[in-house]
Amino acid sequence: MAESERQKADQAFHELPVGTEMGSIEYTISPERVERHLRATHQTPYPESGGERLAPVSILASDGIWLAEARFDIGESVHAGQRIEILNVPIVGSRVKVSGRVVDKFEKGGRQFVVMDVLSEDDRGRVLARGRMTGVARYRPEGGAL
Amino acid sequence: MTQPALGAGAELEPVSRVVTLEDMVLFEPEGEKNIHTDDEVARAAGLPAAIAAGVQFMSYIFEMLQREYGFPSVVGTVLDVRIREPVFAGDTVTARGRVTEVQPHGAGSRVSLEVWCENQRGGHVIAGTAQVPLAGGDAGGVI
After folding, report:
1. Contact at CB, B55 and A65, closer than 8 angstroms
2. Looking at the domain assignment, is residue B143 inside a domain?
C-alpha cells in the first residue's frame, strides 16, 4: 500500500466512530449456494424438517465477512476471532439479511482491528444467528454497496 | 450411535479432513480471486501461498458437535474461536473437542467444551470454546 493510501486509511480508522452502523447486505440461501458449501466443507446435508430443506448452520459463519467487505478493505484478511450463536437453522430458498455495527476498534502489532456485532435474519422474521467478529479491516468511509 | 461425551474431560470423536485448493475455492463465492483462492494474490499479500479461510474450519467444529450431540442440539449452540495459524492446501485439519462442564439449563442441560482444529503438525489452527444445549425431553422441531 502506498504511503499516502496508508495515511488515508489510518486517518479513516482513527475517525471511525465506535457504534457505526454497518448497514446491511442480503443473499439467498439457494440450493446452489448450499451445495457449494457442503462440497467445500465435506458435510452431509441436514435432514429435512417440517417438509423444508435446511442449510448447514456453518453457512452463516461467513455472514460477518460479507458484511465487512461492503464497507472495509479486508484484503489482508487477518480474521482474528469470531463468536456465533445459532438461533435458527437456515431454510433453503429463504432470503437472509445480515446487519451489524462496529462495537470496538484497537491497534495491535501495527495492525488495525475492528470488532463488529453481526445479526443474520431471514425473510420469515427469524433471527438465524448473532455474533461478534474481530479482524483487520481498513475502513473505507466512502463505503461500498450498502 | 454411541453415548455422547458428557463427563468433564471426555473427548469428542474428531472430524478430520485434508484441505484441498478446490475446497478453498468452493468456500468462497464463485469467481472470487483472493488470498484464499489464488496463490499469486496470496504471494502479493506476503503469504507463501493461498491460505484457507478461518471460518472454513468452524464448519468442521459444527459438524463434530452435531455428530456428537445430535441434530436438535444445533440450535442454541454457541461457538467462540480465535483464528491462530494459516492452513494451506494439502494440510490435514482435525477438529477436536473436550468437555469442560455440564450444567443444568432449563429443562435440559448445557455442555461446555474446549474446541480446536489442529493441523498435521499439532499446531492449533483455530481454538476456543463451545456451548451446546441438550434438550430435556421437550425437543421440538428444528424449524
Report:
1. yes
2. no
Q: Would you tell me the crossing angle of helices A31-41 and B55-69 to the nearest 10 degrees?
A: 90
Of residues A40, A57, A91, nearest to B56 (C-beta): A40
B10 in a structural domain: no
Supply the CATH number for residue B77's domain. 3.10.129.10
The interface pTM score, or ipTM, of the predicted complex is 0.90
Indicate yes or no: CB of A41 within 8 angstroms of CB of B56: yes
Only one residue has cell 452431509, namely A44
What is d(CA B18, CA B12) in angstroms, rounded to the nearest whole number?
A: 19
Interface test with B, best of A58, A115, A122, A124 (most B CBs within 10 A): A58
The side-by-side arrangement of strands in the sheet containing B124-134 is A21-28, A95-108, A111-122, A127-136, A79-86, B78-83, B124-134, B108-118, B92-105, B15-18
Domain enclosing residue B95, as ranges: 15-134
Ranges of each domain in chain A: 3-139
Residue pair B126/B58 in contact (Cβ under 8 Å)? The answer is yes
Distance CA A92, CA A3 (A): 46
Distance separating alpha carbons of residues A37 and A58, to the nearest angstrom: 9
Tens digit of each residue's pLDDT (9 = 90 or more) over B74-118: 999 999 999 999 999 999 999 999 999 999 988 899 999 999 999
Number of domains in chain B: 1
pTM: 0.90
Fold annotation for A3-139: Thiol Ester Dehydrase; Chain A (3.10.129)
